[in-house]
Amino acid sequence: MPNRRQFLKNAGSAAGVMFTGCHLLNPKAHAQTAAPRRRQVMVGGRRVTTIDVHAHVIIPEAWALMGLKLGSADPSVIDGVTASARFRTMDEWGTDMQALSINPNWYTLGRDLAGRVIDIQNQKLAALCAQYPDRFVAFATVALQYPDLAAQQLEEGIGKHNLRGVGIGGHVNGDELSAPKFDPFWKKAEELGCLVFMHPLGVPELGKRFAGGGYLSNVIGNPLETTIFLSHLIFDGTLDRFPGLKICAPHAGGYLPSYAGRSDYGCVRSPGACDGAKKHASEYLRQLYFDSIIFTPEGLRHLVAECGAGQILLGTDYPFPWSTTTVDQVFQTPGLSDSDRRAILGETAARLLRIKV
Fold first, then answer.
1. Alpha carbons 274 and 281: distance in angstroms, whole number
2. Who is most buried in 102, 147, 264, 349, counting CB within 10 A?
3. Could you give the angle at which helices 147-159 and 183-192 cross, rounded to 10 degrees?
4. CA dihedral 117, 119, 121, 123 (to 10 degrees)
């Protein structure tokens, strides 16, 4: 995902929330465009409620509390994408609902300030979802640098604010989330049975290698961090200590689903390095979830072959222009049954996020 500040000039707000956007440079022209009819997605003659699990949002008040500036935009008077404009785009794409998440930028904060940031973010997310219950659910935010506090915030986010899961980064200040100190958080997530949506924060230590053309810090870096995150959860034993965890990895799980065979064989070559895992790496794929951002029908076909259609959730990375034809891609993917398509488009997400459809 691009640097968020690059998109703030195209941002809008509703219910105290900023929607970052990138497809509008002339909001007045967009406002004059007739709103399209909502696309009705049908599979086998049945209407499917489509649910996008990978959609971003910003809470301006939280940024202000952290002393961060939103470019030249004033959160109270923002030109650009409003909630209604987001809904128009969703209608064009065939997206009925979005599960909103916030990429963590608070992991370096002290405990008190982090607590205040999380409180305001979760309150504003809850208010937004209450205002538009047929379009939004949201993932709670937590101060994961304090695992005990994060566990408390998660319980409050789910129980008090009716948030449907939790969003986290791929590491916390360079620490892998498989470290035992994070177990209180994982234990609480397992206990609550909520979906944990991880979004990579990048691999800054590879900045020099990523320099140059190709936008490598994102194109390679984000899937790489996802791969590292999942591999540590496997080989450091987190998924065995907490087998009931429901974890969704974006960007189709990075490189792990396509390269799990090498992870398996690595344990043959160096068995002592794999003592932390009770199963082959490839076996864990069937207990993890992945979004569908893989760009081609063949890529999605292969992801389904490796992980199972029931483990794949629709994702767009909205409002960043990574995947604007996600629904169409599901229909273009060879070998999928109607049941597979319904699962990917929304049925699995509805179950995991407790959405009544």
1. 9
2. 349
3. 20
4. -160
pLDDT 10s digits, 154-194: 999 999 999 999 999 999 999 999 999 999 999 999 999 99
Residue 50 CB partners (closer than 8 Å, separation 6+): 41, 94, 95, 96, 97, 314, 327, 345, 346
Euclidean distance between CA atoms 282 and 303, whole angstroms: 12
Tell me the two tokens of residue 281.
């790496």
Residue 19 three-state SS: strand
Q: What are phi and psi of 247, to 5 degrees?
A: -115, 130
User: Is the pTM value of this prediction over 0.70?
Assistant: yes
With CA atoms as reference, report the closest residue to 63 among 8, 105, 101, 10: 105
Q: In the prediction, which pLDDT does 271 show?
A: 85
CB contact at 8 A, 100 and 57: yes
Is the bond into 319 cis (omega within 30 degrees of 0)? yes
Token couple for 207 = 């900045």
- 36 secondary structure, DSSP code: P
